[in-house]
Automatic annotation (TrEMBL):
Pfam families, per the entry: Glu_synthase
Keyword flag Oxidoreductase: yes
Family the UniProt entry places it in: Belongs to the glutamate synthase family.
GO molecular function, one term: glutamate synthase (NADPH) activity
InterPro entries membership: Aldolase_TIM, Glu_synthdom
EC number: 1.4.1.13
Domain Glutamate synthase: start-end pairs: 304-430
UniProt superkingdom: Bacteria
Coiled coil, from the record: none
Keywords, sorted A to Z: Oxidoreductase
Protein name from the UniProt record: Glutamate synthase [NADPH] small chain
Length: 558
């Protein structure tokens, strides 16, 4: 995805180009700053940067057609406050954070030796091999359909994956009586799919909203899985400021969801709505979740309620607890950071506007909330206030429109030293879609099971290869990990996720090596600079020519 843009003055917004000639990518739909289409389809035939990277891996880090071309960046004029208006620092001497056993010689200081493993958590540390995690993949049907690829891929790569809200509540096979779950097959499937390949890196995180709390999800998970899962309280997300939604096209299912206690729109119990449905005027129903803290009238009451919720989870036996908040204003952000810190939580995910979803009102997504870079900047400002008071600030993950290796570096630098991870929602799902579509063609007997959408490989895939070994650059690398016999059990979507992760990992290692940071812990706010004064003002990251300017003048005057 090209990161150049033009200003559409008549609409007051940036327009990001659909193609990048240098790496040979093109977007099917309208691209966002992340490089993903604003509407990402599971049946897409390509070929955005994330889609193509899920096949070619780290090759997409480089310009195409080597030996026949030269390439030069056009991304040197920066408008507005966004992640593209941060640029990455590079240094011409020194090194920091070398892994044990390596020297500062040029032979050791090569990008493959950069350590991108890390951990998060308060008392119990959760390790990861790459500083990314998935977004919350909950009750939207697209999450359920491709879960095998997502969860298997996350476990193999060694990153946390989040089971989003309402998974139990919408499961027809789940048995819930008086706030107690006795059976939850879909939730079990999701947890156990991840645990099958879990090797000590990554985590399975189970998110809860109002309905999940009422239904007893926390009690069910701790009783069945113990400390194998992290429990997450949800305050919000970047895509919307109301509860989560799904759409159903069955009147019976809509009535079932209403009986389960959900808000369903239009109301399927009304005779006139049922009549409209039978005549085709109403074709689907939207299931909504409830707002949180509606019975609270002050910050103090929210604090008291939140602390009691955490205490309840501790009493149940949870050792790892996280919080997810959305792109509310500054007060809610401060509350999230303060309360998560005081409660000694293990992770706080801050999701800015621009963050994705499987189902939210579109104009709400377009117009509500705090854009990611502004929210993330204030997150670190507020975290620093707590740190200055001597508090051990909760570990943070930043989310909202982040998809590439440069996004990872910039977010970690902007959020240093508190940010440990970057949360990627829609980007992490693309390899699951692509791999499943390929598997459905190459293994027609599995097409329905993996929810493949293609009858044949499109030309965008055929020009790369015709077999899994040809198509996925990471195939043999993954085979080395799991063994040749086990490869037949790995969903192609998981192979694609492994391949994408390898591209992100290599790209991040290269950027870190250029900044002379050979360990994630060494990335600092000094490793990025603002490309315009407006971004400097909002992020407190100094402008390009001000960075090290005093040092430069000392050299000149020496």
């Amino acid at each position: 995805m090209a990161i150049n843009y033009r200003l559409k003055e008549e609409e007051g917004r940036m327009e990001w180009p659909k193609s990048n000639d240098v790496i040979g990518t093109v977007n099917r739909g309208n691209p966002a700053e992340s490089g993903l289409c604003t509407l990402c389809r599971s049946d897409c035939k390509g070929r955005c940067e994330t889609w193509l990277s899920s096949l070619k891996g780290r090759k997409i880090l480089y310009p195409r057609d080597f030996g026949f071309v030269t390439a030069g960046s056009a991304n040197t004029c920066h408008l507005g406050v966004c992640y593209n208006s941060l640029r990455i620092q590079g240094y011409n001497y020194g090194v920091s954070g070398l892994p044990a056993g390596l020297s500062s010689s040029a032979d050791d200081c090569i990008f493959p030796n950069v350590n991108i493993e890390g951990s998060f958590g308060n008392e119990v540390k959760t390790k990861f091999r790459l500083p990314i995690m998935t977004g919350a993949l909950g009750s939207t049907f697209i999450a359920a359909k491709y879960w095998d690829s997502f969860a298997t891929g996350a476990a193999l790569v060694g990153i946390p994956i989040v089971i989003g809200e309402n998974v139990v509540g919408i499961d027809k096979e789940a048995v819930i009586n008086n706030g107690k779950i006795s059976k939850a097959p879909e939730l079990d499937r999701r947890i156990e799919t991840f645990l099958k390949y879990y090797d000590g890196y990554g985590a399975i995180i189970v998110q809860m909203n109002v309905e999940d709390t009422r239904n007893g999800v926390a009690e069910y998970v701790i009783n069945k899985y113990g400390d194998k899962a992290i429990i997450e309280l949800k305050w919000g997300q970047g895509a919307k400021d109301i509860g989560g939604e799904i759409q159903v096209d069955s009147l019976d299912y809509a009535l079932f969801l209403k009986e389960r206690g959900y808000v369903v729109d239009p109301d399927p119990a009304k005779p006139e709505v049922q009549e409209a449905f039978r005549h085709g005027a109403v074709k689907s129903f939207a299931r909504h979740s409830r707002l949180g803290y509606t019975d609270m009238s002050s910050v103090e009451k929210v604090s008291e309620s939140f602390m009691e919720s955490v205490a309840h989870l501790r009493r149940l036996g949870y050792k790892r607890i996280s919080l997810k908040t959305g792109s509310y204003g500054m007060e809610a952000l401060a509350m999230a950071i303060k309360y998560a810190t005081d409660a000694k939580l293990d992770l706080l995910t801050v999701d800015g506007s621009g963050g994705g979803t499987g189902m939210s009102p579109w104009n709400m997504m377009e117009t509500w909330g705090v854009p990611s870079i502004l929210l993330h900047s204030k997150t670190i400002e507020y975290a620093s206030i707590l740190a200055a008071k001597g508090d051990k600030v909760v570990d943070i993950a930043l989310a909202g429109g982040l998809a590439r290796e440069d996004h990872i570096f910039k977010a970690l630098a902007l959020g240093a030293p508190y940010t440990k991870l970057v949360c990627m929602g829609r980007a992490a799902m693309i390899p699951g879609f692509l791999g499943s579509n390929i598997e459905g063609v190459l293994k027609p007997e599995r097409k329905a099971k993996v929810n493949g959408n293609w009858d044949e490989l499109p030309i965008s895939v055929r020009e790369i290869g015709a077999s899994t070994e040809e198509l996925f650059a990471g195939y043999y690398d993954l085979q080395k990990k799991v063994g040749a016999d086990e490869m037949k059990n790995i969903p192609y979507g998981a192979i694609a996720m492994w391949t994408l992760a390898d591209k992100l990992a290599a790209g991040l290692q290269q950027l870190m090596a250029g900044a002379r940071r050979f360990d994630l812990s060494q990335i600092s706010r000094g490793d990025v600079f603002s490309a315009n004064r407006e971004t400097e003002r909002e992020t407190k990251i100094p402008f390009i020519t001000d960075v090290l300017d005093e040092s430069a003048k000392k050299i000149l005057n020496s």
